[in-house]
Amino acid sequence: MSAYTSLMAYQRETEALSEIAGRLGWDQETMMPRGASEQRSEEMAAIESVLHARRTDPRIGDWLASAKPSNAVKKAQLRHIRRSFERSQKVPAKLAVEIARATSVAQGIWAKAREANSFKDFAPTLEQIVSLKCEEGAALADGGNVYDALLDDYEPGATTADLEDMFDALRPRLVALRDQIKDADQPPVLQGNFDEAGQLKLSAKLAEVFGYDLTRGRIDKAVHPFSSGSGQDVRITTRTVADDPFNCFYSTIHEVGHATYEQQIDPAYLLTPVGAGASMGIHESQSRIYENQLGRSRAFTGWLHGQMIDTFGDFGIEDPNIFYRAVNAVQDGFIRTEADEVQYNLHILMRFDLERAMMSGGLAVGDLEVAWNDRFLADFGFAVDMPANGCLQDVHWSVGLFGYFPTYTLGNVYAGCLFEALQAAVPDLDAQLSQGNLTAATIWLRDNLQRHGGLYEPRDLIKQATGADPTEKPLLNYLEAKFLDIYNI
Known about the structure:
Layout: H1 3-30, H2 37-55, H3 58-66, H4 72-90, H5 93-116, H6 123-141, H7 146-151, H8 160-182, H9 196-209, E1 219-221, E2 227-230, E3 233-238, H10 245-264, H11 280-294, H12 298-312, H13 320-327, H14 341-360, H15 368-380, H16 406-425, H17 429-433, H18 439-448, H19 458-466, H20 473-486
Parallel strand pairs: 1-3
Antiparallel strand pairs: 2-3
C-alpha cells in the first residue's frame, strides 16, 4: 500500500470515531436523561482520549512525509490531515481529555443555571472552561495570538485583525439603518397561540421544501437548536414557542441550511477530512442564506402565509404583504437567535469583544455578567432583565467554543456575496420562491459550493462560487435595500 492509501485508511477510522463522538453530543442535547451527565462526561473524555492519540500518532507524520498526492482532492486531504496533526501535537493529551470531560459536565450546569436565572451558579464552571481554553490557546499559538489560535479551529486563515476591519466596516451602517427604522411605522406583531403539533408539522414540510433528506436525517426538539453529523446521518433540532411560530419555522430552516450542506457534499468524500464543511463561516453562510435571503424574502413569505392559513386557519394577518413585514419586523429583543437581520450582527460583535477580553485576561469571568449588561445597554439602548436573557442565553461558552461566535457574522457576509451571485444566475428566483419552489436556489448552492465540502479554503470557495473576493458590501447593500423598502423609508 502507498503512504497515501495507508494514511487515508487510518484517517477513515478516525473520522468514523469522531462521528460517534458527535452522536454522543447529539444524544446529550436531545434524548439523554439529565441524571446521566456525569457518566456521559467520562464517556466523552474516553473517546477524546482515543481520538487525540490517533490524531497524534507518529505514523501520520511518516505518511505525510512520504505521500505523493496526484490530484487536487488528495492535496486537500493531506492539507487537512497535516493541519490537524500539527495542531493536535501542540495540545497535551491530558489537556484535551480534561477539556472534553469539563465541557460535557458544563453543559448540564449551564442549563440548570439558565433555568434558575443565576449566573453565580455557572460562574465557577465557566472559570474552569476559560482557564482550560486559555491553556489550549497558548499551546496552539506557540507564542502568537491566543485568540487567533482558537479562531483557526473554526475559520482557517481568519485573524482577529481581519475580523476587526470587517466588523468596524459593518457597525456604522448597521447602526444607521437601525436608527432610521426606529422612527418609522412599525409592522403588526403576530399574536395568539399556535399549537405545537401544527408548528412541528409545518416545520417538517419546510425542511423538505428546502431539500432536507429525512431518509438520512431526523428532526428533534432541543433548548438550543443545532445540526449534527455528516454524510449519511445528519440530524437537526428545532424548538417551539406557543406564541411565536416563527421561532420554530426559522430555526428549522436555519438548521436545514447546515444539514443540507453536509448532505450535498460529494459522496466520494464520505468519512474523509474533505467530507465536511470548509469552515464554520461557510457553514453559517448556508444556514443564513436559507433562513434570511430565501426564507424571509417577500416571495417566499407569500407562499408561507398560505401554509400558515392551511395549518392554523385565520391567524390574524390576512394580507401577505403585511405578513412579510411581520416576519421581518425589527424589534427590541435580548436573544441573539431571535434577532432580526438588521441587529443580529450587533449581538455577535458584542460577544466577539467579550470573549476576546476573557481570553486575554482583561475580563474576569466573575465580572462577565456586569460587563455583558453594560455593553448590551450601550449597544441596544435598553437593559438586560435577567441572566437567561443575558450572558446565560448561549450554550457556546459552556462547551468551550471560544472563537466560534465571529463565524456567525462571517457567515452573514458570505451569504450576502452568494445571494448576489445567485440572483444573477437565477433571474426568475422570486417567481419560483413565490410557489414554494427552492429547487433552482438549492441546486445552485449545491453545485457552486456545497458539493465541494472542504476541498477549498473558505475565502477561495466563496471567490470560486461568486467570482469575487468576499466583502461585507453585498450584505449591507441587501439589508439597506430590503429594510428601507419594508419601512417605506
